[in-house]
Write a structure and sequence with these properties.
Blueprint lengths: L29 H25 L3 E8 L5 H8 L8 E5 L5 H4 L5 H6 L6 E5 L8 H4 L5 H4 L2 H14 L2 E9 L2 H13 L11 H6 L1 H14 L7 E5 L3 H17 L20
Parallel strand pairs: 1-3, 1-4, 2-3, 4-5
Helix pairs in contact: 1-11, 2-11
Bound molecules: adenosine monophosphate and magnesium ion.
Magnesium ion binds next to loops.
Length: 269
C-alpha cells in the first residue's frame, strides 16, 4: 500500500474541505484492507506495551467529526485488542458548571495521558472553537484567541513527552443522512439518535467553515492534523491505525534495561 502521507496536512497550508474527497480510497482494496486490519491491530498491541515499558512518552489521539462521523466506531475498531490498562478514553460533552467556571483547557489538561499511556479524546478542546463558535456560546473576541491558546497548550504537551495525532473524520452530508436514518430505522440504535442533532446538521456549512479554520490554524509540526476520508469505514479504520502504528514506530521507544544480575537469577524451587 502507498504511503499515508497525504492524510497528514502540511503545516501552513490553507485547508478547503471541498478539496478532500470523503469517498477517497487511495489505491487500497477493501478485501485486503479488512484482512490486514488484524495485523495492524497486533502491531498496535505490541507497540502500546512497548510505550508502557519505555515509560518516557505518551501518545494523545484526538478524534473530531460531525455527528455519525464514526468517532466511536474508530475507537472500537482501531483499539480492539489493545490492553485497556494502558489506554485512557475521554469523551467530552457540554461542559459542566464546574468546568465552565474554569478556563476551557482545564478539563482537557486533566485528561491528558500520563507517560506510558495512549490517551484518546472523543471530541476535545476543539469543540471550544467549533460548537462554541457556531452557536455563539462565547463572544468572537473570546473564541478567536483560542487557536493560539490551543497551539501553545499542545506545545506544552509536546515539549513534555506527549506525541499528538489529530484526526478529522471527514464524511459527506449525504453519508451523515444515511447514517442518521439507519439509527432511526433500528430500534437498537435509537439510543444513539438525538433530535438535538438535527439543528446541528442544518448548520453543516458553518461547521465546515469552523473546521477549515481549525485545520488551518492549529496544524503544527508538533501536533499535526490528518483528514481521514471516512465515508467508507474500512478506509477510515486503516488510515487511522496505520498512522498511529507508524507514529509509535518512530518514537524511539525502548524496553528499559534489565536489572543488573538478571542473567544470574535462578528461580528457587
Ligand atoms: P456526543 O458526542 O453525541 O455524546 O455529544 C456530545 C455533545 O457535547 C455534542 O453535542 C458536543 O457539541 C457537545 N460539546 C462537547 N464539548 C463542548 C463544549 N466545549 N461546549 C459546548 N458543547 C460541547
Ligand atoms: Mg451525538
Amino acid at each position: 500500500m502507498s504511503s499515508n502521507q497525504p492524510l497528514r496536512l502540511v503545516p501552513g497550508m490553507k485547508v478547503r474541505l471541498h478539496e478532500f474527497d470523503p469517498n477517497q480510497k487511495f489505491d487500497w482494496d477493501k478485501d485486503t484492507a479488512v484482512s490486514e486490519l488484524g495485523e495492524w491491530q497486533a502491531r498496535l498491541e505490541e507497540l502500546q506495551e512497548l510505550l508502557y515499558a519505555d515509560g518516557s512518552q505518551a501518545l494523545l489521539v484526538v478524534l473530531q467529526a460531525m455527528d455519525a462521523g464514526g468517532k466511536d466506531g474508530t475507537i472500537e475498531k482501531v483499539f480492539d485488542g489493545v490492553n485497556p490498562l494502558g489506554v485512557t478514553v475521554t469523551s467530552f460533552k457540554a461542559p459542566t458548571p464546574e468546568e465552565l467556571a474554569h478556563d476551557f483547557l482545564w478539563r482537557i489538561h486533566k485528561a491528558a495521558p500520563p507517560k506510558g499511556f495512549i490517551g484518546i479524546f472523543n471530541r476535545s478542546h476543539y469543540e471550544d472553537v467549533l460548537v462554541v463558535r457556531v452557536n455563539n456560546l462565547v463572544p468572537p473576541e473570546v473564541w478567536k484567541k483560542r487557536y493560539d491558546q490551543i497551539n501553545q497548550f499542545e506545545k506544552i504537551l509536546a515539549d513534555n513527552g506527549t506525541r499528538l495525532l489529530k484526526f478529522f473524520l471527514h464524511i459527506s452530508k449525504d453519508e451523515q443522512k444515511e447514517r442518521l436514518q439507519a439509527r432511526l430505522d433500528d430500534p437498537t440504535k435509537h439510543w444513539k439518535f438525538s433530535i438535538g442533532d438535527l439543528p446541528v446538521r442544518e448548520q453543516w456549512d458553518a461547521y465546515m467553515k469552523a473546521y477549515e479554520d481549525v485545520l488551518t490554524k492549529c496544524n503544527t509540526e508538533y501536533a499535526p492534523w490528518h483528514i481521514i476520508p471516512a465515508n467508507r469505514k474500512w478506509v477510515r479504520n486503516l488510515a487511522v491505525i496505520r498512522t498511529i502504528v507508524e507514529t509509535l514506530q518512530g518514537m524511539g521507544l525502548k524496553y528499559p534495561p534489565a536489572e543488573p544480575g538478571l542473567d544470574q537469577v535462578v528461580i528457587p524451587d
